[in-house]
């Protein structure tokens, strides 16, 4: 045994498990060949490893997925129902702070009292409508729960489907599409996808924000908006109690298999044509109206979604610098599950790029992280790693930025750039 | 971005980690049914504690830490930590846990040797002290780097490596006679 053995002996484990850098590996290999003791020690480790590898991995029970997912969804649902207040820094698609009336609604719409409450409310509203139409009109905006993407549990209970189908289990309810729970009315301040309240009184959902991030709320002109918490930096905030809620439009950025949503999906698609069409509808169920708007925005010459039309339109818009349109088109592609083969990752990536380009790193990260977690084999993963790291760095998530850059540094082509960024982070 | 209430993101994480966590817990508690229940607990905690993940460590580190603590809680509640044999199988989940079937159709002799090796390996791992066993399992079967293991088990990297060396040495002594056969299988 040479004098270097003590030094190298400590590294044998790292060598056996491939945790050494190239230089150390070369040095240790050279030593190992010249030192019988270290060679034997290394062979012993590898001998045990070869035996250990012969073990088969346990097979997961076939019913495992449904059991756990059902339980997880149910737990999330229960947890969400028990969460009366959103976190101080509510995530982008969290429900806003509830007013007193909304809190009462939240209580009323809980399952145990919902049936009774619904019936009572229906009778009450009918009576009030008959007796005092004006009073009814005044009451409605105050009674409308604001819609900001994902709903709270109580709000989910107000969804038409959830409210009328009691047999629907909680796991399914957790994935219900978010639909504005109330009738929308057209008006001078009407915005597609805006909260289901009177136009004059409704907080306006910023179309692009909603699309990309799930319900950023633009400053609303009137009192309702004051009750809502505006989320400036959603990516670094946590979604406590929100897991059961269906992700909103933006957070669906890369959900290639997602069911197309009515309200959420259409929220950002504001066209004068569709707005005009909508404005003619004095009172229309929100979901129906949104679906109509979606239809209006389909490619004009056909009733069938062209496989690549949204994708191509998105790319064209991106290339000419029209990020807003690009996001809309890519999101349409994802919602309709159309587009060329393997384009979901690309579309999600470009949604992120658009958001980043427009300075919305928080929104961009939602899509970037989705690409990283859901499309592991995406051909531009390195590019995504770098761009996401830059966004994380900008938002102060240095640990995550380092993590991404370290992965990026494994690619020789990106190593220098990643290392430079890492150095910059360390400073 | 499961933290932002993205159900799809949660399912993606679930798909990625359900197997490794289940395997880890099977080996930690030695019982498939218990491991299945504990895996459910882990993902339930994942939902409830989503807001406690601050990106200060890797997500994998965090979820393995949750899994380890869940297993330890279970062991404490059970008063005694009895590790069922790794090759124990239950009626409803198919073949034995560590059954090894050679791709080229094992002869009765090879099959017999394979079974013997599996049992010996299971017994040897089972005999390891708990702290050595978890380090060995995380490094060998979950590919977790020593630095990450040190976070999961809350010990210094040097301590983790020391435990690993002891574990490897114990296994080597127990399984030395199967080394050649294992190489033949692999």
Q: Could you give the distance between the termini of chain A?
A: 43 Å
CATH homologous superfamily heading of the largest domain in chain B: Winged helix-like DNA-binding domain superfamily/Winged helix DNA-binding domain
Low-confidence stretches of chain B: 81-106
Helical content of chain A, roughly?
Answer: 55-70%
Question: What is the CA–CA distance across the termini of chain B?
Answer: 39 Å
Shape of chain B: globular
* SSE run of chain B: HHHHHHHH
For this structure, the CATH topology of the largest domain in chain B is Arc Repressor Mutant, subunit A
Number of strands of chain B: 0
Could you please describe the fold and organization of this structure?
The complex is a heterodimer of chains A (427) and B (186). Chain A has helices at 5-16, 22-34, 36-52, 64-82, 100-108, 111-131, 133-143, 153-156, 160-164, 170-174, 207-213, 223-226, 263-266, 272-279, 286-296, 309-319, 323-335, 343-357, 361-374, 381-394, 398-409, 412-426; strands spanning 184-185, 283-284. Chain A is mostly helical and 427 residues long. Chain A has three domains: 5-48, no CATH class; 76-231 and 255-296, no CATH class; 309-315 and 329-426, Tetratricopeptide repeat domain (Serine Threonine Protein Phosphatase 5, Tetratricopeptide repeat). Chain A has a two-stranded antiparallel sheet with strand order 1-2. Chain B is mainly alpha-helical and 186 residues long. Chain B is 66% helix and 0% strand. Chain B is built from eight helices and no strands. Chain B has helices at 7-29, 32-48, 59-77, 108-127, 130-140, 146-152, 157-175, 179-185. Residues 81-106 of chain B have low confidence and may be disordered. Chains A and B meet through helix 1, helix 3, helix 4, helix 19 and helix 21 of A and helix 1, helix 2, helix 4, helix 5 and helix 7 of B.
């Amino acid at each position: 045994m040479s004098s270097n053995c003590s030094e190298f002996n400590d590294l044998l484990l790292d060598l056996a498990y491939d945790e050494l850098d190239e230089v150390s590996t070369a040095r240790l290999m050279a030593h190992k060949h010249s030192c019988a003791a270290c060679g034997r020690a290394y062979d012993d480790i590898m001998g045990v490893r070869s035996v250990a590898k012969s073990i088969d991995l346990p097979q997961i029970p076939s019913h495992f997925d449904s059991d756990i997912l059902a339980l997880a969804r149910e737990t999330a649902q229960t947890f969400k129902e028990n969460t009366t207040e959103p976190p101080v820094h509510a995530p982008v698609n969290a429900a806003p702070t509830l007013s007193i009336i909304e809190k009462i609604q939240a209580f009323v719409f809980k399952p145990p009292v919902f049936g009774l409450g619904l019936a009572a409310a229906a009778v009450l509203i009918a009576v009030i409508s008959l007796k005092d139409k004006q009073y009814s009109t005044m009451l409605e905006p105050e009674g409308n729960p604001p819609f900001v993407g994902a709903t709270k549990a109580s709000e989910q209970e107000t969804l038409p489907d959830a409210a009328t189908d009691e047999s629907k289990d909680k796991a399914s309810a957790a994935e219900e599409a978010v639909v504005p729970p109330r009738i929308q009315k057209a008006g001078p301040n009407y915005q597609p996808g805006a909260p289901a309240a009177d136009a004059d009184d409704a907080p306006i959902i910023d179309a692009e924000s909603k699309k990309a991030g799930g319900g950023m709320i633009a400053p609303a002109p009137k009192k309702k908006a004051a009750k809502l918490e505006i989320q400036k930096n959603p990516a670094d905030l946590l979604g406590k109690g929100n897991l059961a809620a269906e992700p909103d439009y933006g957070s669906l950025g890369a959900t290639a298999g997602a069911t197309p949503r009515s309200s959420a999906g259409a929220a950002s698609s504001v066209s004068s044509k569709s707005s005009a069409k909508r404005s003619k509808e004095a009172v229309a169920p929100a979901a129906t109206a949104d679906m109509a708007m979606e239809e209006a925005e389909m490619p004009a010459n056909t009733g069938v979604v062209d496989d690549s039309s949204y994708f191509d339109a998105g790319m064209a818009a991106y290339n000419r610098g029209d990020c807003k349109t690009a996001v809309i088109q890519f999101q349409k592609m994802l919602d309709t599950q159309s587009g060329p083969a393997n384009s979901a990752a690309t579309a999600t990536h470009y949604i992120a790029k658009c958001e980043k380009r427009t300075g919305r790193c928080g929104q961009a990260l939602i899509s970037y992280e989705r690409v990283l977690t859901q499309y592991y084999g995406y051909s531009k993963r390195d590019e995504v790693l770098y761009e996401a790291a830059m966004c994380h760095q900008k938002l102060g998530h240095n640990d995550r930025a380092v993590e991404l850059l370290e992965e990026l540094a494994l690619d020789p082509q990106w190593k220098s750039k990643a290392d430079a960024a890492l150095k910059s982070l360390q400073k | 971005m499961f933290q932002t209430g993205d159900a799809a993101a949660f399912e993606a994480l679930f798909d990625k980690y359900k197997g490794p966590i289940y395997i880890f817990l099977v080996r930690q508690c030695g019982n498939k049914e218990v491991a299945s229940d504990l895996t459910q607990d882990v993902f339930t905690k994942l939902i409830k504690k989503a807001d406690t993940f601050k990106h200060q460590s890797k997500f994998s580190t965090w979820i393995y830490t949750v899994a380890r603590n869940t297993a330890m809680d279970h062991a404490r509640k059970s008063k005694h930590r009895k590790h069922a044999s790794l090759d124990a199988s239950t009626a409803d989940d198919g073949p034995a846990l560590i059954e090894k079937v050679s791709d080229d159709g094992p002869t009765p002799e090879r099959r017999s040797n394979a079974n013997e090796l599996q049992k010996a390996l299971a017994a040897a791992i089972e005999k390891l002290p708990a702290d050595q066993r978890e380090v060995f399992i995380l490094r060998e079967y979950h590919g977790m780097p020593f630095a990450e293991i040190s976070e999961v088990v809350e010990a210094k990297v040097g301590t983790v490596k020391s435990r690993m060396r002891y574990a490897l040495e114990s296994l080597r002594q127990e399984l030395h006679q199967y080394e050649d056969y294992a190489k033949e299988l692999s």
